[in-house]
Amino acid sequence: MSFFDTHLLNLVVFLPLVFAALVLMLPAGEAGQIRAVTFIAMVVDLVFGVWAYMRFEPGGAEFQLEYRVHWFKEFGLSYHLGVDGLAASLLLLTVFLGPLVVLASTTYISHRIKEFHLALLVLQTTMLGALVSLDVLLFYIFFEAMLIPMYLLVGVWGAEDRQMAAVKFFLYTLVGSLLMLVALIAVYFISSPAGARSFDYSSMYNGLLDANRQLSACTAGPPGACDSLTGLAATLHTYGPWLFGAFALAFAIKVPMWPVHTWLPDAHVQAPVAGSMILAGVMLKMGTFGFWRYAIPFFPVAAQQARPFLATLAVIGIVYGALMCLAQRDIKKLIAYSSVSHLGYCMLGMLAVTAEGATGSAYQMLNHGISTGALFLLFGYLYERRHTRLMADFGGIAKVMPVFTVAFVIITFSSVAVPGTNGFIGEFLVLLGTFKSDLGAAAGNPHLTMVFGAFATLGVILGAAYMLWMVQKVFFGGLTHRENQHLTDMNLREMLTVLPFIILVGVMGLMPQPFLDRIEPSTSRFIARARVGTPGATVETEQVRVEVMGLPAQPTAAAPSVPAPLAARAVPSPRP
Amino acid sequence: MNLSQFLQTAPVAPDVLAPSLWLIIALPLLGAFICGVFGKMLGRANVNLVACSAVGGAFVLSVLAFWATSDTDPESRRLLSFFVNPFGQERDYVRYALAHDYGTWFAVGDFRVNFGLMVDHLSGTLLLVITGVGFLIHLYSTSYMEHDESYWRYFAYLNLFVAAMLTLVLADNLVLLFVGWEGVGMASYLLIGFWYTDPAKAWAGRKAFVTNRIGDFAFLIATFLMVLLVGAFTEQANERDYTMAGSSSQRYSAALQEKGTVTFLGLQKMAEAIPEGGGGAVVLSTPIAAGPLEGYTFGGVMTAAMLLFLLGAAGKSAQLPLYVWLPDAMAGPTPVSALIHAATMVTAGVYLFSRMSALLVLSPTAMATVAIIGALTSLLAALIAFAQDDIKKVLAYSTVSQLGIMFMGVGMGVFWAAVLHLVTHAFFKACLFLGAGSVMHGNGDETDIKKLGGLRHEMKWTWGTFFVATLAITGIIPLSGFFSKDAIFHGVHHNHLEGLHWVSSAVYYLGLLIAACTAFYMTRVYLLTFEGQRSKEAKLAHAHESAWQMTLPLVVLAVLSVVSAVYAWPLMKAPGDGRPQPVFENFLSPVFASMNRIVATGKTVALDTSVPAMGDYVFAWLVAVSGGALAGFLYLRFFPARAGQPAPAFARAVRRTAQNKFYVDELYELAIIRPVKFMSFILFRVVDALLIDTVAVRGTAWVTARVGSALRYVQSGDAQAYAAVMALALLGGVAYALIQVLQ
Q1: ipTM of the complex
Q2: Chain B neighbours among A 453-472 (CB < 8 Å)?
Q3: Which residue of A16, A22, B115, B372 has the fewest C-beta atoms within 10 A of its own C-beta?
Q4: Residue A403: other Cβ atoms inside 10 A
Q5: How far is CA B685 from the centre of its chain?
Q6: Average pLDDT value for residue range B625-636
Q7: Partner residue opposite B202 with nearest CB, options A324, A446, A472
């Protein structure tokens, strides 16, 4: 392990922040320089991010490129970074979107340019930080810090109702995450005995593991068998569902799952193109990522009990989100509701707890970032030209903007998961995973699995219906509005911004295996950890224990594992 | 060297050709890319050249591949075209076929999909049809689209379609087939809405895609059921099951690992292992032991999967209840209708069931459903075709009707005849559509047959070829349509589904009615378009004959619709007992060998292999002629004589109903589309906007704000008031404590 390897993630995470300091020093009037510096920052970050992604070995340890130092060791806190397959994939998505977001905003943003780019850079750091944190409190800090720049993006550079949308977005997500903070601190206190407490992911998970196994063993037994549990297992038996609920609510709002999704359409509609792209591309994935990394592994038994309920919500989200799209007149709102539908697939695949489902879910997270990110990007270009979001104000655009239309239609096909595009792989795997899953058995009747699967598959029809309906309204037919007759087609910059998306649509559709290979080890561990909660599960502790690097030895005396009781300490007298 | 030897000596050996099979798909794909991206720069002539040569090249490669499937050593007469079936035992060969696996597409858990291509006699035949007819239609299009400014887009889409269709027939597994399956749907969407400035055409494209998606929904679920079924089979089967299928558990699971879960060869082996009466641990009535399908029998799940595949096929092949998109698809350019909506894409359902014949014959219920759906669709479409005045609409309904006939064949187990009818139909229906296109081209895009007429003398080539094709579809001896249709009807009549014997006769007599109807409406179209006097309402005073690029394909297709009759003639000898056997049945027998074995063991279908006798031929011929003669009488004698007199009310009502397609579209609109739209609107307004967002979300904010502003009055800042509250609270506390203590 070279110095570079150990610091690679630090570099990826904080590079945008370093460049933000640089941008801060530039005069506010130098818009070109600010854009250039931000763009360079994002490109360099992309290079390092791709490097990190390539350095990740699918067959290696669970967490790689780890870095860990002491940080508030009195609280058992450490500064601990590392990526598993899913985090590496999402990290790749984040750094991929970075430069494109900057390019997309070149003409879109015309005031407070410096502040805008500062917000983008800070946002990038917080998102990357949340993905690579292996300390749960560190994760929480990044997770919350993310809200601030996004709040500014929506609230300052948004459309007409931006204030309302920004406040709604902020408060809505904050409610969930504050509950999560409470649960997090509770887990901190119960997972280890006093003195050994730590916010580290590994110690929290490993601390809960034995109790979780006991709990799952007794749920397989006769009714009431769990009442005789003692210690941590009893605590988890009583409070586990509440703790899981707090985590799940926070992440469900972020995903967003039905029925806590209503902040999303407002935020998306009001956000500037950069905001929408990042929001759809990365921030929603923090919710699914949180379920995958924290909520389900920490409380497998409670998660197992809640699985049919959550899966029902996911299926409702798929169908309901698609139906909402059919009722929209506003294009951005339609795309936003389509996100609800797509994220429903991600949640369903994860809750299926099958290899196909979970891998498909992770892949669908990437796909959604690409296809929906590109849809928002493309619509942003149209909005810049026409300053309206209503479908009725368009029609026949294909005649005047042929290249734009081609790009939009390709992304549309990716969004409705036509085979050969990336969307198909994700959706197919999620649905296959659902059909193979034991969701029905968890809900009481094995055959219910088919019902979950069939309803989820309905999204295939509805997806085509609403996307093609929108495409037809906007692009086909006659040019009925005079304002639309002189729209210019995409220029070179805009084409260059869209091209990477289109290339990825094809590459990820036809050669998904390199991406899937990196997701696969995370999937198998996630499944094993979720399976801990299945009644009568036969998961070995060694299979699921989280192994991470230890803390570096202190140059001074190592911290005692158990601090001496206060009274026993020799308190030096202040007076001689 | 005689003809048979010549045909069995391939110029390129199978093992040399197999690794290059991808080129057959790649060439049209490359053509699509060049035409689409550089088309505008290249100019019209270059685009024509690129597009035609891409498909032409694919045709040459297809001929080579087709040839290679029958490659035998000239001296020893040993077959050279075979490969080891990975799912069978070591010496289990797939004969008359070549295959190549290009590695993993995606693999997750124990599920895997490979880029595997396979050519056997079935897909080889379809390759020839797709690229051959496809090439002719490309050639035709160069002239047909000569005045269209978006020619490059047109050819890009058309090439894309060919590539997708070739993927569909070359795929060796269900998922890769699905790529082609949706790919052709996508290309069809783009081509139907080619003239997108007309909202009606863009709408027709969307309707086609969404209707197809309903089918794809069923297709996907059926695929998942197959995956579950394979999983359950490998769990529960014992060695005897595998032996029956000529395999072993080791070889089978190794092949599943290596080749993927839903390869056709693997599914076929599973099907061979589970017929009733086989004696293994798994037969059709065995319940599945674990998993989501726990408790259902193998046979039951198989039936469900086949019925779902039927819905999928109904979407693509325009059968009940999803046929409604095809007539509207006529909004696309006419060569597109000829290629996609007559010759190739719409036959995908027939191909799918032929490819999975081994699975279909396990379920007589599913087979009967397929046959009945086919017959009903066919009859309904034929009746609608009676009253249509748009030449393309008549042909569209005729296509639906003919596809129904193919489904009847598939459903009753005469797969070879269904495939033969697919081929001959591709020839004569493409000829009819292209003829219609030529008519439109020469008459100012007029499609109303009432406003045409008398073209016989003005468009001689178009007339001649249309006449031949009409005779072929009507079923007049000795054209191909007669023999292929009769082969289906003969099989339908004499095959019997286990436990469902009534289906044979029911479907057969419906078939005869359909044959008479076909003759009627085709004669009507022909007479009104080409015979009689030129209509007074015609757009142009004189029609002009089309250029050679358009007439040449017509002539080739007309010739093909005559000579392809040869395939139905019993010129060969059956391998076993030396009975006379139709050429095509003999040719396809390696493809359906597995199906035949299953039928022999499982007795689900009683397959008849007799050849129609002369009496059968005469009877079928009489049926066709009577339909044609009736139309001739009505439209040459009866109606002209009664011109000017109003028709009786009941006739007008019947005609109006048929003209309005029995109001099926309106029914769907009322029963499905509007409720869904209405429901989404209500959900949005009531649930999303009102209940969730206003009541729950804003309500929370409102309550918080109200509580806050109410509590504001407490914060008066008046120290005396605070002190008073404190004192009162203290007093209350003391009083409470006292009461507690005293009690």
Answers
A1: 0.91
A2: 453-454, 457-458, 460-461, 464-465, 468-469, 472
A3: A22
A4: 13
A5: 39
A6: 86
A7: A472
